Write the structure tokens for this entry.
Amino acid sequence: MDKEFVNKIKSYVDRGIEKSKTAVGKMCAGVEDFGQQSTVRLEITSLQSKKKRLLSQLGTVVYESFAEKKLETVSADSAEVAELVKQLQTVCDDIAVREQQLAAMTKKGKPDTASPDVVDAPAADEPGAETAADDMSADAPAAEPGESD
């Protein structure tokens, strides 16, 4: 065999391996980013559920104050109301932090829509560029005269 031909083949194989490694690396980073985003989304959902529960508790406290205790006003200074409001504020702050984290992750990598680079095909002037197309057309049945797609 021609040594130059063997070296070209080796060069193409080496380039293909390097491009594959790069593509796999990008894909792994994308999967990791997607996993981190999913975790933050789950945390946000959990915090939103906690917020709804706290709001329900606050509503119950206010209702009981009027309906059962026959109070005419409810104050944010009451220990029970103040504690629930404090917890709600903490949860709302946590939600805002997680939403900012998620926005930063999405802007940084956009892994939700990112995909690894496709390994480049040989350039038209490189050996093997025409062979794939030639091989495909050789396998295709010949059209009979007068037939069209």
The helical segments are 3-67, 79-109, 129-139. The chain has a mean pLDDT of 77.
